[in-house]
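#lab-general

N.A. 3:47 PM
ok so I finally got the sequence cleaned up, no stray characters, all 120 residues accounted for. can someone with queue access submit it? mine expired

B.Y. 3:52 PM
send it over

N.A. 3:53 PM
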Amino acid sequence: MQVISESKITGMGPGALDFVEDKILILFSDQVGNGIEEYSVQITMPQPIRDIVPGDTMRFGKSEYKVTAIGSKAMETFRLLGHCTIHFDGRPVPVLPGVIHVEEKVLPEVVVGESVCFYC
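B.Y. 4:20 PM
back already:
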């Protein structure tokens, strides 16, 4: 297993779970004032060693998901802002440039102190 990126969950805004019914979680670095902290899961700033690609795996806390698609801007915003929107819908083609799609399974529990890790 090669770790591509690993961040710790440091907090979560009161509205971070507002999009769970839509199978969406928003990640943002806790170092960046983004104005949408209220709707985000805050993480430590990621430092990916390479781009995340379909077929890689995301471990979110104790749950694992295969990456199925990644938008054209997702890695840029992930590197610069620690931001991405994760859709747990298994789509093979991204719906928006900043989205990472993972396989459709039950969304993970968000627990401060656990990690969000992408690996291959």
